[in-house]
Amino acid sequence: MDADRFRSLAETAPPDLRQKLLVLPSIVADWLEPHGGLAGRKIMDFGCGLGELAAGLAFSAPTASVIGLEVTDQPTQLPTTLEPIGLALPPNLSFREVALGEVGDENEFDLIVSWSVFEHIQRNQFNAVMARLKTRLKPGGLLFMQVSPLFFSPEGSHFWALGYTDWQHLTRELSEVRGDLDASVLNDRQRELHWKLFLRLNRFTAPDFERRLAAAGYSVLRRQIDRIDREPPAELLTAYDRDALMTEQIVLLLRRN
Prior knowledge:
- The protein contains eleven helices and seven strands.
- The protein has helices at 3-10, 15-32, 52-60, 78-82, 123-136, 168-171, 174-182, 188-200, 206-215, 234-237, 242-246; strands spanning 42-46, 65-70, 93-97, 109-115, 137-147, 218-227, 247-256.
- Strands 3-2-1-4-5-7-6 form a seven-stranded mixed sheet.
């Protein structure tokens, strides 16, 4: 399928799907343009979820080979998601299901992409995961990492279902947070999934991420740090670093040393 046909079909998708098929791949492509672009590259989407971003990368770079890694079988649902807008899986896209913390057994990747994944990797596993990913990259290979929301930011709890958009996970006691979850409209299974996700979130700040990545053997080629434009609650400023409370997103392009 040519690029124009793909774009015309993807433009008809619901907003969230359209963003993952068109907007996010274009951001990755823009960051990679000064470093050889995406064409002909072997690309891993680490923690690909349903696989929409991986599909967008594959459609936008038909000469690339894109492999999505996920700890669940979510990507099996991607064809059903694409079908209503007239799309099928592109031939240069495939998926692998891996155990938590594992990175698959294929090597020689030119690029690893990860979008809103690394905040979910626990502190005691992070260094090992980064070391494993490094072995999957070619020497000089690239890692594109987007992390949002960081834990100490207003929405860092990932509890959007509870309306937690103003640091409530930091201003409320842990028992109150659990009480809000139990009183929500979520069913029992959803409550437990949300709670486990919350407990597994790491507490890294932007400098924490960069220090750990440098120690793991990656060099930063480009960075973007996005901060919110409103003040944190005064009660938090006596206990937490202001910059940590206001840093919402980091985007990094790194090279394997």
